[in-house]
Queue: 3 jobs
Job 1
Amino acid sequence: MQGRHVIVNDNMKSSPAVWQKLKRTRMIYLLILPTIVLFLTFTYIPLVDGLRISFQDFRFVGQSRFVGLKNYIEAVRTPGFWRVFRNTVILGFSNVVLTAFVPMILALLLNEIRFKVWKRFSQTIIYMPHLFSWVIVGGIWIFMLSPNAGIINAARSLFGLEPLYFMAKEAFARPIMIGVNLWKQAGYVCILFLAAIAGINPELYEAAMIDGAGGFKRAFYITIPELLRTLQVILLLNVMGALRIFNQIYVMRNEVIAPKIDVIMFYVYDRGLVQFKIGYASAIAVMIFLLTLIITLLAKRLIRYKV
Amino acid sequence: MKLSLRKPALMAGLAIVLLLVLPALAFTGGQQKKTEEAPVIWYTKIQGGREPAEVPLFEEEVERLTGIKVKMIRTTEDYDTKLAALLASGEPLDLVYIGADVFESLWDQQLFEPLNDWIEASPVLSDPGIIPQSEWDRIRRDDGEIYGIFNKFEQGTLPIVRMDWMEKLGYSEPQDLDEYYDLLKAFKTQDPDNNGKDDTYGLVIGYTLYDSPGIFGAYGLKRGFIKDSSGNLVAPWATEEAIPVYEWFKRLYAEGILEPNFITNKSSNFRDLFMTDKAGMTFYWAAWVGLFNQQVKAKNPDSPFKARGLTPPKGPGGRLLKAGNDGFMCIPKYSENKELAFKIAEFWHTHEGNVASTLGILGHDYNMENGKYVLTEVGKAHAMDHGAPQPKSLKWKNPLGELEGFDEAAAIVREYAVPQMPTPYDKIWETIVRSEAAKIILGDITPEQGIKNMQDRFKEEGIYNK
């Protein structure tokens, strides 16, 4: 085997051999080509274009003026930017942690249900919110939290409590956004954990049971350690999306709670496509891109994730 | 093995061919069309067919009436965002509908063609019997040019009352804020729908005071920004003069007279509540007086429902309403079809254009029977709105008459409404004033604190220094 490797490596040095290998694997390259072209056209070229615009006083028609770092400096000097940045960090970090650990706990609990029909029913109920778009989810929760028609206030009234306008109180704004996001996403992540649990070698449980381990110990010493790899992946995916929260905020925000929940992506949308400060918005978008890259690399290192 | 390789090869080859050939075909297709006859590409939010399937019918109708081919792109959701994206990408648009606020934000981009010479040369648009010269002067920029052609008579918002409830409870038309309060309280407490339940509100609104300029108008406070004597921007609703108005709304909320979802209500929410016997008053567009009556009666012809516009309350500042922001038809500078685009905008203000923009499409929305216009069922559902339910033309008289209650409401608006001064900061104004106003009304902060917050936030945005 060793010799064969050496021969292959030697052959690689000569261009006819490279050509031979390319010819042999041409199907793979051909199949991947359309995807590469699409990615270049719709992701990377606009990305480079966005970078260029971020250094310009952008004009829709005619020549845009190069302004250097002006848009970036203006962004970091604007108090509004730091306000939405703080909101993004708080909401993003909460989402990263909660939508990883809570579904894991849910999966562990679901895994303990022995009655199959009930187990499937519970899975379906938990998973269902993930199927709805944010428009539907946002609408449902705004209605459920409404002061005069919502189920939450109806429940409060049973205890003689005054109705609360949850969606108009800054103090509730972030918990509501975090909670609703968890409600929507938990089912999907839970299914991923359940799939991982299903893949755990049953002999490990049998051996543990022979050794007298109870349900809690089996979960603690077998299931959870076996789920760590899945948890790593989910944490990494959550981190990559942490700074890109948009849809939920767009649907559920109102002016009163906006100072507590407006996030960077919404800020970019507002400055770029509502107020038409395209260069300024592009500068912030570039900063988000770089920040996401750095955070993702850091997170990869922290959680020791290897592809 | 060979077979399994060939199939992916075939698929990959096909994918590449499609990828390369389709754009080329599209390109050559576009070229061919240009040599034939390039249609006027008309990007719009409100004009044309009401449903997507009716857009082609409307295009045919315009071609029948003008001889000009048009291609309409009608977008209702996120219109401004999509418009900006299309303009930025250089999409070949020839005629675009644009609101005055967005036009103002885009003004320094110099995107649109100046239209002075064209308007002066147009027998339709230069006719003061159709559009008065004062209206053109109102939208003339500092450089003396006009960059947009009006779309319609924009009306305005005003208090709309359940007149049947008001009469039943023995109230006459309220004249000032105290009388408005008394009436609204009666709607809340005197069971105007006679169902024996405490399930009605005095007032239902949405988007936190969005349509409430009539109340501020009692103190002479205009919506948005005005310029002071030094030319600086000032927001009248963010001054101490507005405190009595906030106190008035706060009282309504505290006493349960104001429907409590006034911050999160969308238009459809509060319209529905008004039409389903849940509230005695709302603040909304004059055209909706007619539409409220029509929609309720369409479902229940025997309903006593009677919506009517009210004169706004009189206060120390007199009476004042806000006219709707202008909507314009503009021609992008890069359009290669400017002349025909202008002809379409001109057509919009002819009698035929007015018929199309109100009644709609012949044979679809209406028919001609013995020389008379007769709405079809589709036309009735469309409520004579195909982009300009009330045309700008002073010569226009709807051959079918207006919907119940509209004429009176429109007369009130014409008498008391003035347009908001457009600035590039209007969207920021909306966010700041409405958020602080909501907190005041909810009782979370005092009116004084709310006013201070508004002013601080305007300073933070750099608006009060401009």
Job 2
Amino acid sequence: MNPTTFFIFTTLLKIVGIVFVVILPMVSYAVYAERKVSALIQDRLGPNRVGPAGLFQPIADAMKFLLKEDFTPAHVNKFYYWLAPCLAMVPAITTIAVVPFGSTLFGVPMVIADINVGVLFVFAIASLGVYGIVIGGWASNSKYPFLGGVRSTSQMISYELSLGLAVIPIFLLIGNLRLTEVVQYQIDHGWMIVPFAGDWRNPLAWLLAIPMWISFAVFAIAVFAETNRLPFDLPEAETELVGGYHTEYSSMKFALFFLGEYAAMITGSAIIVTLFLGGWHFPGIPDGSHGWIFGLINIFVFFAKIVVLLFIFIWVRFTLPRFRYDQLMRLGWVFFFEIALVNIFCVAAILAFHAPPFPKHGLQADESDHGIPGGKMGPAVA
Amino acid sequence: MTPNPYLFIIVFVGVALVFPVIPLGLAWLWRRFFQPSKPGMEKNATYECGVESLGDAQIQFRSQYYLYAIIFLIFDVEAIFLVPFAVAFTGLPVGAFIAILIFLLLLLEGLIWAWGKGCLNWAK
Amino acid sequence: MPSFLFWLFAGVMLIFGALVIINRNPIASALSLVVCFLGLAALFMSLDAFFIGIIQVLVYAGAVMVLFLFIIMLLDLRAEERRTMNWVAFTGGFVVAVSLLVQILAVISRTQMAKQTFPPLASPQTDDVRNVGLLLFGHYNLPFQVIGVLILVATVGVIVLSKRQLR
């Protein structure tokens, strides 16, 4: 098999693997986990009828969604009513394409498309996520969904700014937008939330930890707002808007909205893990070049981190009350936006003062690597 | 030679498009062949409080939302200018740092002005 | 990028660009424009201008079009859908468009440059975001500040205008 065919074959395998073998079960079991964890928090039992400890509940849910009446109300705009659930799902999944979910396995890098504008790609796709919701709300031609859709759009674009500004300190540090480089930097110099790990004796590296924590906090909270999770779930606040933008939806179309939200949660967690929590790296575990078993462990570590974050998502949902809408907007615009902006300056100033732990390729990036993942750790079959 | 990774993004977008279409298609087929159609006035009604729905829903809404969208657009452009700055930071002279400082102060001033005008306050 | 992808995305752009005008429903037009922008972004990327391509999606598809959708939703859509086609204006517009096309084709067919095939671009050995940054902040500081002032003016203008309208 020649290298190009091998590369195409492995990439297609990765695409199918990540979408149908990882994301799909993960999304359905995230719903199960949500119900189980909420039951734990509220001292209930949760789903426990289908299979051992209710483990087959997602399958039963899927069957139910499929067999429920596929009903389109007469007052909706038919085409857009059907289009909206798809639009809600697609961006949530597409984001995962640039995230490195493991080191290497049998010499194949565990990332689908290692592009040189990785993070911007994530934001670009995330910014398309509003269409599903606003179209769904509008096409339903009903008051609750319409309000939910418009609210949600406003909220998402407001927090998108904080989201974008919060990651800029990382790129001041790394000088590269490529997500594999972000992970590599964190392996060499410590995770982003502990930037002093690689350089214990440098007080400025310790100082750097403060803005990094602020960045991390702002980013994580903005992800909560972007995914419409409590305490930012105003678009679907059941006490005032019934179900928000999906009030008029039922059966499989509702399921897609619902699963799209969980898929967005998973991809959001994946981005947090990649940017701040070291990606697939865990101290003491070597990467995939030391044997395929380590490659597998790296992938496992990455998804384990995502699961921890998902647990926090659920925990927060059943702990905190909801914001009022004006509070939410003020928080986004007046607090997080400014704090993220000032944070960039702090990092830039700190970096200007001490010889920063820039990666070796920092200045030579122009000559060395380019838009092809095979450059450094491509398939070893050449 | 390895193909451009962007090709795989295109493939991936294709897969992501197929992903929601499969369950929708299955549900549609199921309805088409197995489900009895039982339409009704109540079923078709708009979901509201139980009272007959009044008027159309696709109406003009509060213009505050639209003001936020405009301000968002402006600051989105600003944030994008910060990205090449951040990436090129290691190779830039001090002048560039001052330049971006002035740029950001200008925009921050705009934001504070907007805030002072009450554009960022939801409740009036 | 293989040429069939160029034809694919160029075709997508043309079809959805036409749909922007043909659709009677403004929301449908706006969504067609989004797809058109996505096609444009893909074309930019096929020229290895990754940064520009992503910005195209981020700013135009993600921010400008959301604003458009909001504005459209503020309009009375029913009136727009009821409006019948003005055949005189349609014919006039069609004639202008066709004559423009003929003109462009005539000019291009006479230019010697157009007959040459371009040498293939050098493969992208650089990080284009970084290069944009180095160039913008290294050599074009003054224009950059002017942009800053321009954005400030835009902020002020938008708020003054919309505040006046809200009253």
Job 3
Amino acid sequence: MIQGKFYCKKCYATLDPSDGFNRCQQCGRAFHPANDLSFLRRPFPSKLRIVVQIVGTTAVGFVVAYVVAMFQMAALSGH
Amino acid sequence: MTQSPHPFRYFADPVCIAALALYALNRHILKPHHIGGWFTHGYFNDVLCLPLFVPMILYAQRLLGLRRHDGYPRAWEITQQWAVFSVMFQAIIPRFPKTFVSAGDPWDMLAYAVGGVLAGWYWSVREARLESANQERQKKIGDSFDDLRRSTAIHTITRIKREGFPTDEEISRFSDETQHKVRTLLEVSKQE
């Protein structure tokens, strides 16, 4: 018996396991009602996803800032 | 998450292009000729920092899958990069004077913020306008399809076409049969 609500892991749309297609109607991502890892229980990113998002986006910012600093140094030194 | 019909264009965004042009202007004309005084020498590049690099950073995030949409930059995304640049250039870089040349001026943080606020304001206004135009278009489409009857089909199609939609790209999403019928009706309406 399928219980509770299901949400797409990609677009957070509500999933309907009873339609038999087992695909998100909005983005087409496949899911399986018996596999907890294939869908979300809340229409939000998972905690792990949020942490990865914050760390990843911050890291990208630091990499770009580092490149800017290197460019700035090269420009000031005349190379 | 639904995709906007008017996605953010990252490197091709007018703010990013304008910031790049102003950076070149500052570096090759304003600074060498001492135009603008302390502002162009000390802070103009810092004001341009976020308008120039936020689109680039968001593009990199998009490529890496860290950004899952092509919407305009959000306030928290701009604030996050303001914090990153502030920490990098005011706290980290000044600790390595032998490697990097940076005075660590705290006013730079204000300059980053001014650039970020101006760019963020422009992006939010532009997104709101595009969204408003899109809603207006959706309403016109809805109105055009009201009261559909076989006897008024040609007039309805003519009215829809006069409004500039559906576009060829939108028509191409229909089945071949539907596309053929629509084209036939359009030809008929042209002949009338």
